[in-house]
Amino acid sequence: MGFTAQHDGRGRLDATQADLGCGWAWEAVHRTRPRVVMLCPECAHPVHAKVSRYGLRFFAHDPGSPTCALAGESMEHHLLKLELATAVRAAGYHAELEVRGPDGDWRADVMATSPDGTGRMAWEAQLSPITVDEITQRTARFAKDDVRVCWVATKLRPWVGEMPSVHVRPPSDDEPNWIVAGGLARFTVDRCEEHLLCRSIGHGEWHETTADLRPFTAWALTGRAVAHPLPSWLHTEQHAWTGVWTAPQYITAAATYQQAHDRAVAALEQQQRLRADEQRRRREAEYRAQRARRPTAPATPSSEPADRQPTVPQQVSRTAPRPEPVWQVNLPSQDREHLHAAALAEARLLLGVNAELRYRDGDRRWALGTPLYAGGRP
Ligand SMILES: [Zn+2]
Ligand SMILES: [Zn+2]
């Protein structure tokens, strides 16, 4: 089933519009004798106008159609497409359904065009499973033609969040509207007494939030919400998000907070270094004092000169402790290389990604470990 059909004289018919998008009434194509000849825009097989049990208008393929992407679309897919088209139109944008790209390498479920005709954004109801690679490629094909895209999912598949996407919930008895249930977030800085760092700069964190699909569609079209890859996962009860939609001011707030955080970490580490230096100086002084109190051995030709400075044991002269677990510090470099290689192999095996190691500084940001990066993300 599809919302569009091709007619020889009228061009593209759109069942979601009262005048079929061409100044024709639904009655002019629905149950007419003789039949109006209309073709599927995807496979060019004849289609006929139909109304669902719930009053939804669409075009159905005549019997014996070839395998066609539009023929195979489910009712749920169809309803979501209709909702997306309605949301785009409510935002004051032009919506076209089932639009093919100039090179034929993409087909948009709903193509939104700005009132001045300059900005285009595809809204894709992606209900069937798809791999991260595939959806990345499809996003790139849209981008090549200057089309932004938002993938809309009704199930939390692994790709959700990897590309600009949202998780939506259909209307129910309790909630008459389509809801963006996941993929929308805001950044807050709250008072926190629990963590040492937070006492000075507050506790900054991304939080998931929800909205009705219609206002969200308007925000995304007009830039009040933008797709934002996160520097690390946002874990919710249902999903680990690597990217979210958010307002530009939250992105600024998060960047400002990160700078304050890095400065606070640097200050804390400086403090720790000073304290460690101070402790070392005290230990050295104690050591010298102990040596001075020791009874002098009887003079022999091989004894050291009395004025020689006491040597400080290696352990005492160590510099400030690295913020790294002891086992890792003590790991011979060859074993460390083996560990890193094993981690990369594991990532390939379990997740099918070619990862690389970055930031071997054992920073707190990486939980004192070494992050694996896949596709620019930790
Ligand atoms: Zn078809
Ligand atoms: Zn905190």
Brief synopsis:
By secondary structure, this protein is α+β, with helices and mostly antiparallel strands. It has helices spanning 75-90, 132-144, 198-201, 213-222, 248-293, 326-329, 333-351, and strands at residues 4-7, 11-14, 38-39, 46-51, 57-61, 94-100, 107-113, 120-125, 147-153, 165-169, 179-182, 185-190, 203-208, 211-212, 226-235, 240-246, 356-357, 372-373.
Report on this structure.
The chain is of the alpha+beta class. Among the domains are: 1-73, no CATH class; 324-378, no CATH class. Helix content is 30%, strand content 24%. The chain has seven helices and 18 strands. The protein has helices spanning 75-90, 132-144, 198-201, 213-222, 248-293, 326-329, 333-351; strands at residues 4-7, 11-14, 38-39, 46-51, 57-61, 94-100, 107-113, 120-125, 147-153, 165-169, 179-182, 185-190, 203-208, 211-212, 226-235, 240-246, 356-357, 372-373. The strands form five sheets. Strands 6-7-8-9-10-11-14 form a seven-stranded mixed β-sheet, with helices on both faces. A five-stranded antiparallel β-sheet has the order 2-1-3-4-5, with no helix packed on it. A hairpin with a 3-residue loop joins strand 1 (4-7) and strand 2 (11-14). Helix 1 crosses helix 4. The protein is elongated. Mean pLDDT is 88; it is low at 313-322. It binds zinc ion (ZN) (2 copies). One zinc ion binds next to loops.
